[in-house]
Write a structure and sequence with these properties.
This protein is mainly α. Helices cover 71% and strands 1% of the residues. The radius of gyration is 31 Å and the shape is flat.
Amino acid sequence: MFLCLYIRAWEMLLVILVVYSAWICPFEFAFLSYKLDALFIVDLVVNGFFAVDIVLTFFVAYVDNRTYLLTDDHKKIAVRYLSSWFIFDVCSTAPLQSFSLVFTKHNGGLGFKALNMLRLWRLRRVSALFARLEKDIRFDYFWTRCTKLISVTLFAVHCAGCFYYLIADKYPNPRKTWIGAEYPNFKQQSVWKRYIASMYWSIVTLTTTGYGDLHAQNTIEMLFDIVYMLFNLGLTSYLIGNMTNLVVHWTSRTRTFRDTVRACTEFAARNQLPPRIQDQMLSHICLKFKTEGMKQQETLNELPRAIRSNIAQYLFLPTVQKVLLFNGVSHNFLFQMVAHFLAF
């Protein structure tokens, strides 16, 4: 029990570090030069946590996809990990740019900064977390799904803004860039002002607002804008499709309930049924609406017959034994009879 809690806590810690990596990787790539400072130490510590996780993975049991049995054989665990995600995990954890800074006294330029983007491979942990939360009944599916969609949107906006600034920063003529045309001395401004300008452009472009104050000034930026806007078409379709599906699923039961109540009321009025019968009809419809989401009978039908019999005996046998009609009847007969009762 305590081991499971420790594993969950460790996984949540890694997810928090993944969120940090997802933000800092594009930000470092576009805005910062690598040097020995506090951020250098933080990156090393974060990489150290993921290096420890690589070692721990060799000792974590897994469920075999063919037999659905838990496998705890260390040799099989190692073979499975080495043949799947091991290489990707090592590449995303190795501090390549740090090695360049320490051993060659320079930051390795754009090439090593690009290699550091391999840390984004860690995002698969966040995807796995959301997949698990969507199946966890302790968390509301609607809000879990909304959180995932918002996270995807924010990550896309962040990456696009950082990459677009990098194009301007590396362009030979800074004044002929999207940000240089508006702020000629943008490189002398604080990094946070430049970052806010990049996020402003990214959000305006994503939402297709297009104020026109920040726009492409050279061919490279135009090409990036084309790719980003085409990507936004797919992202927007994905977001709208998911939100529509969530809203429709959320309101479909209520809409069906209202239609049923309206039809029942019209039937009672057309046939001039007395108020007592009308109340009984509406009470039954309300009760069905409240218990429909439980799907009790569907859940019981999925269980083995022996478990269904035990449940039926627990629910109905004490009540049946109190009925005078069944006094003196054998217990075997009562057991067989209650096994066919349905729970509502």
